[in-house]
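Listing S7. Sequence submitted for prediction.
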Amino acid sequence: MEAVAQHTRRTGWTGTAETVITTWAILGGFMVVAVVLMNVWSVVSALDVWTAIFPETNITFQGDFELTQMGIAIAAFAFLPYCQISGANVTADIFTSRASPLWISIFTLVASVVALIFGLLLLYAMYGGMLSQRQYNYTTAILQVPIWWAYLPCLLSLVLLAVASVITLIEYLGKTARGGA
């Protein structure tokens, strides 16, 4: 039986960042649960189950499609920094299964650099997109929610992704310098 590798707890500013990132991902998970519950409510109300049980009420949920779009986008972005800091990103193990620990640390170092660049580019582009949405006062069609509001948590997620990428970059830079150990 293989021993499961234990995650060493980060300390200092990296430990604080990891806690913030983990908490942010959990909040993203709650967002997904809220979206699912809203959609269940929407489907049940569309089936007229409530009106069959309670004929005097008409419970419907307006704008569920709009809130689903924004909620899932926010949640997906909330998971990005957690995947980076925890090493849970998708990898192609078929290419690294026979690689030495040094090469694996080099690959993960390069992946951290790519994640950092990707996060910063997305942060720049989405910040511009948010300013544009705000300037032209775009809102959702039914609920009239300003679209730029959804950008704020996504931008925070991208800042956290950049922080997570810097942390993993530093860690794998040290690991690569030690020969992959």
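Caption to Listing S7: primary sequence and predicted structure tokens for the chain studied. The helical segments are 12-46, 49-53, 64-86, 93-96, 101-135, 148-177. Confidence is low (pLDDT under 50) at residues 1-6.
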